[in-house]
Amino acid sequence: MNNLTFYRKLRRFLSERRSSAAVEFALTVPILILLGLGAVEFSAAVRAQLDVNRTARYVADILQNQTSVSAAQLTDYNYAAQDMYASGGANGALSLSVASINFNNQNANGNAQALQVCTNWDAAYDGVAGTYKYTALPAAALNNDTSLTDTYDNDSVVIVEARAAFTLPFMPAFYGKIPSIFTFTAISRVRPRYVLQIPTNPVGGFNSQC
Amino acid sequence: MSPFGILGALRDQARRFRRDRRSSTAVEFALVGLLYFFLLIFALEGGIFYLRITVLDLATEQAARVIMINQGADNNGNFATAPTTPTGANSFQALIENDSFDVLTQANIKVEVQMAPPVTGTVRAAGTGFQSIPPAATPDNVTYEYKPGSCEVDYSTSTTPYTLIKNHGCTAGDCTTANFNLLPAGGGEVSGGTYTASSNSYTDATYSCSAGQDIVVQAQYTDTTLSALIGYLFGPITSTLAFQVEPATT
User: Fold this and answer.
1) Residue A122 placed within a domain
2) Chain B CB within 8 Å of residue A79 CB
3) Residue B136 near residue B154 (C-beta atoms within 8 A)
4) Which of A68, A78, A87 to mutate to test the interface with B (most CBs of B within 10 A)?
5) How confident is the model at residue B129 (pLDDT cuts 50, 70, 90)?
6) What do you get for the CA distance between the two ends of chain A, in Å?
7) Is A172 contained in some domain?
8) How far is A68 from chain B (nearest CA, A)?
C-alpha cells in the first residue's frame, strides 16, 4: 500500500458521515458500563461499612454484659464477629480490637489529680485465627477522645474497634491502578452494665498500662 | 407470472425496503429499546435488592432482640402468649416480616437459630461458645417458632404445634429447657429435645437456655421477583447476629 492510497482512504474515512451514531455509542458505552458497575460497587461498599458497624456494636453489646472476661472468651467473641461480618457477603478479613479503659481522678491516696486514662486490658485479632497483640487500639482512640472526658473516678468504658479491608468487586479488573481497597473502621464504646469495670480472669497476656 | 417474475418482484420489494428511510427511528428504537428497558428495570431492581439487604439486617436485629432480652414471661414464669403453628403469626419468620416494612415476604425467609453448648465458668474450652456454632451455609426453613419466654425459639419437626410450653419448668423467664436445632462441637445438626404426644410431655436434651447463653441467629432471604436476576448474580441475602441472652426481668 502506497502512501497516497492510505491518505485517500483516511480522508474518506474521516469525512464519512454514515454510522456516526454507532461510533458515538461505542465511545460512550465504556463510560456507561463504568457508571453501572460503579453504582454496584458503591452499594457493596456501603453494605460492608454497615456490616463493620454492626459487628462492632454487637461485640460491644456482648462485652458490656460480662462481669469478667477471659482470653478464651475474647477469642470466642472474635469468632462471633467474623461470622457476623462474613455472612453479609463482604470480602476481606475483619480485624477486631477490644479494650477496657478506666479513668482515675484520684491518686492512690485519695487526693484529686488530673484525669488519668488507664488501659485495664486490651486484645486484638487479625482475622479468624488472630493472636494477641499488645497494641490493640491506637493511643488516639484512648487518650485523645474528647467524648470520654466526662467521666467520674473509676469509671470504665469498653471500646471495640472493627476494621475490614474491603476490596471492590469489579474495580481491580476494570480500573487497574485506581485504589480498589478501602479500610472501613467502626468504633463502639459502651459502659459495663453489671460491674463498674470488667476485670479479666487472669489467663495471661493482657496489657495493663496508664 | 413466471417464477422469475415473482423472484424479481420480491427482489424489488426487498430493495425498496432497505432503501426506505421512513420510520427508521422506530426501527432503531425497537433495536435499542429492549436493551434500554432492561437497563432501566435492572437499575430499579438493583435498588430494591439493596433495600432488601438493609431491611433484612434491620428486621433480623429487631426479631433477634426478642431472644436477646429474654422477654415474654410474666412474674410467675408463665408465658403470655400461647404458641401457634410454626408458620403462624408467632413464627420467627413472621417477626422478621413484621419488622421489614412489608419489604420481605415470610415465605422467602429462612432462619437458623442456634445455641451453643453450655459454658462452665468463665474459662471456655475449645468448641464451646460461638466457636461451636458457625452459621449454617443454608439456614433451615420455616419450622422455627417464637415462643415467648422459653429462650424464645423452638425447633419443630412436626406440623403439630407444641402446646406444652408452659410445662417447661421455667422460673421467671430463665428457662432451663429448650428445643433448639443445635450444632454440637463436632458439627452436624441434632434436635435438642423430645416431645411425647401421648403424655403431653417434653424432655430436654443436654442444652439449656439461660442468661449468658451464646446465640447465633441467621436469616436468609431469597428473592422471587425480578430481583431474582440480581440475586442470582450476588446470591441470597444473609444476615447473621451473634449475641448473648440477657438476664430476664422479673
Assistant:
1) yes
2) yes
3) no
4) A87
5) confident
6) 82
7) yes
8) 8
